[in-house]
Design brief:
Layout: H1 3-22, E1 26-33, H2 41-50, H3 57-64, H4 71-77, E2 81-85, E3 103-105, H5 124-136, E4 144-148, H6 193-218, E5 224-228, H7 235-238, E6 245-252, H8 255-261, E7 267-268
Helix pairs in contact: 1-6, 5-6
């Protein structure tokens, strides 16, 4: 909502609404309050999955060692396949079992042969494409519930990839020429704040555009997409004292989805 970001991002959102409508999809949006800001994103993910307020590491550890019902395990009990697509995970994640995943795809399982984009191990478009190929495109499969932790909008927000044709994504080597050398991640706090904020805005535009393009290309009557901003960025972007509110949107073609959530009175689009 900061004018520095709102106008360019609003243009992307408006275009996204038009593109979704042309593909037969609708959306509803609102704000939630995150338990964290500027980092520790796993606290926000655990809060979303569990319905518990997970605002510190001890609570996260308690959740991970419990058998509390989570959104993931609820889908599992209903007969769905549940997967975590976590391109930022480059080490073991033992807590995933207690959270109800059948399969977790970390960075090593994603088959990516392209370059890193600073902290981001791979572009969001590649992550979505890989999931489509190895999970969702199978004709003989159970319904699948997937949680993605997309990383292109993770600090330090540059360099930022560009969208390519989905048939061109391949093993990710198509992105080789886009990952020009930039500042190392630890240099973010020494940069010109104007440059940092511009890069953050561009990363949000890219991530949102990737998701909308995915829906246009692979969406069907059964697809339901929930887009959640897990937390506000660091104060170099927001300034001091920013709220912890984050946007959430639900995208679907099936009108019954919106009938079920109508009492929430979320905003259209």
């Amino acid at each position: 909502e900061d004018p520095e970001f709102a106008y360019p991002v609003a243009a992307v959102r408006a275009a996204s609404d038009r593109r979704l409508g042309a593909a037969g999809f609708a959306s509803r949006s609102a704000f939630l309050t995150s338990p964290t800001a500027g980092g520790s994103s796993w606290l926000a993910h655990a809060t979303m999955l569990s319905g518990s307020w997970i605002d510190n590491q001890q609570r996260y550890d308690d959740l991970a060692s419990s058998h509390r019902l989570t959104l993931t395990s609820a889908f599992s009990r209903a007969g769905w396949r549940t997967v975590g697509v976590m391109p930022g995970n480059d080490s073991a994640w033992p807590e995933s079992g207690s959270l109800g995943y059948h399969q977790v795809y970390g960075a090593e399982e994603m088959g990516y042969q392209g370059p890193r984009f600073s902290w981001a191990t791979m572009p969001d478009q590649y992550t979505l494409s890989r999931f489509e190929r190895i999970e969702r495109s199978s004709r003989d499969r159970r319904p699948v519930m997937a949680e993605f932790t997309l990383v292109s909008s993770h600090a330090p927000w540059e360099p930022i990839p560009r969208l390519v044709g989905w048939s061109d994504v391949g093993d990710g080597s198509v992105f080789n020429t886009m990952a020009a050398a930039g500042d190392p991640p630890e240099a973010i706090l020494t940069r010109n704040p104007t440059r940092v904020r511009a890069a953050y805005r561009a990363s949000i535009e890219y991530s949102l555009s990737s998701l909308i393009s995915y829906v246009e290309t692979y969406g069907d009557d059964d697809l339901v997409l929930i887009l959640l901003g897990d937390h506000q960025p660091s104060p170099i972007v927001t300034g001091q004292g920013a709220s912890r509110d984050v946007p959430i949107s639900i995208v679907a073609r099936d009108a019954a989805v919106f009938e079920r959530i109508a009492p929430w009175a979320w905003q259209e689009g």
